[in-house]
Amino acid sequence: MSAGGVLVAGSANLDFVVRAPHVPALGETVLGHGFATFPGGKGANQAVACARAGGAATRMLLALGEDAHAAPVEASLRAAGVALEAVRVREQPTGAAFVCLADDAENAITVAPGANALLRPEHLPPLDGASHLLMQLEVPLDSVAAWARAARAAGVAVALNAAPARALPPRLLADCDLLLVNQGELAVLSGVEGVAAGMAMLDAPALVVTLGARGCCARVDGEWLLQPAFAVRAVDTTGAGDTFCGTLVAALARGLPFAQGLRRAAAASALACTRLGAQAGVPAQAEVERLLAAAPAPAAAAHAALAAYCGLDFP
Asked: What keywords are assigned to this protein (predicted)?
C-alpha cells in the first residue's frame, strides 16, 4: 500500500432493501413495491467511497461468514479497488441489514451484525503504508478502541465515524484525530442539543458534523468551516453519510486541505443520493470532479443560513 493510503476497519453487510410509500410506524404493515439486495455495511461503504470517489489507495479489514451472502459483498469491494484483509468465520453468517426505503428517499434500517461481531483486536493487520485508519461502530467497541490505540502508537491518524450513536469511553475519544458524526450522534456524544453547543462539548482536533440536506459544519484545530450541501433530487439517502466519510478521509490521506476535502465529500454524498444502493450509489472520482467544476461556489446567503442553523456567528 502506497504512502497516503487508508485502512478501513469495520463492518460489511448485505442489504435487503424494500421500497415502500413510507417507513412503517410502530405496529404498522406497509405494502412495498420493490425489493433488491445491495452490498452495504458502514465500513464497506466507506471503503468503497475512499477508493472510488476519493481516489485513495484503500485496504479494508472485515469479517465474512462462509455463506452465499459473502460473495456479493466481497465482489463489490474488489470492483471498487479495495484490497481485502478478510477474516472468515464459521460461527456467524455474513452481516445483514434490513432497509425500508421510502419514496421520499428516507429510510429505516435494522442490522444483524453476524460475522462483524467477531472482529477482534488481534485481527488488525500491519499499518505499514497507511496514513489514516477509518473506523465505525458496527463492530465490537473494545476492538475499535484497541485499533485506535495501535494506530496512534504507530503514528497513523485515527478517524472515527461514531455511528451508530452510542456513548464512548473517554480514552477512545482522546485517541481520535478526526471525529465524524451526524446531528443525532453529536447529541448522544455531547449530551446537549444544538450543533455549536454540542461541538463545544467535544475536544477532538478535527470534528465534523453532517447535517443532511443542509451541509456540514467542522471545527479543525479551532477553526470553523462550513460547507453547504449540493442541491440534488434525492432517490436514496442510504449510504450518503458513509460516502461523505470515506471521501473526506481519502482527500486528507492524499494531502488535500481540509476545506477542499469537505467540498469533495459534500459533492460525492450528494451524487450518492441520486442512485439506489449504499455502494452502488457511490460515484466515481471523475463524476465528483465534474460536479465540482460545474457547481458554482455557495452564495454568502447559504453560508449565513447554515451558520445560523448551527448557532454560529460566522461570516
From this structure: ATP-binding, Carbohydrate metabolism, Cytoplasm, Kinase, Magnesium, Metal-binding, Nucleotide-binding, Potassium, Transferase
